[in-house]
Request: fold
Amino acid sequence: MSEATPPPPGPAVPLGDLLAREDLGLRLIAGSPGTGVHWVHASEMADPYPYLLGGELLLTAGVQLADPERYVARVVAAGAAALGFGVAPVHDTVPDGLVAACARHGLPLLEVPPGTPFAAVGRAVWRLMEQARHHELRRVTQAQQALASAAARPDPVPAVLAALASRLGGRAALYAADGTEYAAAGRPVAPEAAAALVRLAGVLRTGARPSSATDTAAGVHLAAYALGGERRLALGVAAARREPGDHTVAGVAVVLLSLLTAPHQGAEEAARSGALVRLLLGAAPAEVAPLLGDAPWTVVHARGEGPVPALGTPLVDAGEGMVRALLPSGREPAAPPPGWTFGVSAPADPGGLGAADRQAARALRRARAAHTPLARHREAGLAALVDPEEAAAHARALLGPLTEPLTETLRTWLSLHGNWDRTATALGVHRNTVRQRIARCAALLEADLDDAEVRMELWFALRLR
Reply:
């Protein structure tokens, strides 16, 4: 891709999966069936370049296909993943010039038969993407559980490295500050890749010390992550493939290894580290509450650029410009430094930390949308007048037709008073996407979202669900 927006980190749909759909009748004319597609876009523009984001399967009937060579060159420059050409009503067959141009530029070309609407192709891609997301979510969840279980073993550091290497299908190693290998597990890699991984880990100890870095050497995907603490250890991972959820899996390993390798832990700090590990394992909050110390705890989500801001707590998970922290009772976050935005939850006991984490995430989105440095979660007074169980049951019934992306879009849109642009900013999507999702919500709920009373009821339902 040139300067087009990079495709999202979610799983892509291989063209081969789309070609396997007999109901669509698609035929690959040029390119590889292994190419991944992130979304679908239909256009009859003579030059669709300005309207492409990258990673699309671009569908066209060739209404303005005057110069196939220039057309394909512009599509490739925009970063489109593949081109689908609809046969009829404009062309009886796929033009030979278009086939040749796609072959020269390495752009996969699909023939869409007359009986297959472009909308059906788009619907099939979204369904395949949803299946891929569910598969990736299960994979990441299972990997997190395996890492947390490994951290509870008698020799936890090698166990965590072995679990990480197994889940990512490669090698995982810890590097000391001088670049020597502290511990390692998994498949050996070629000397060239091993040397490149050592250099990549060294990048984390220079300059502004980024939290992670990636590279490729000898056909092997490499990633390095800085561990917290004074020992300045770095985690290096080498694998033949890089899946969308690998960064999340490695992030869990970084948190666990940071705790497990922290030097000179006193009995209280060691107990708290163990408590956090057991929380990751899924232990009942009541079992670890005494070790975490006095409640309530506050969750802080922060996003920004530059050095991680000081939050006054050792329980910090930082990476890729995003920070999550647990603040003990009586401690307040300092004012965000320039370039950073904070979202702060309501105080919670250990049993409510999951809800507090979601509160902090929503507060951060609200702060970023409103361009304010800090936003706090506030409980609505009227909510306390309703029986929680009855309110939750009503909310589930009312919002039952909505899927999670629609629910989150509706919640954000209502919290921002129906402002399309601020909602798009908060969710990181285009404003037209927000409009489409809200229209879908209105249709599924059979509700008039312009009605203030309807909005109020939905807002309470979303808060109490």
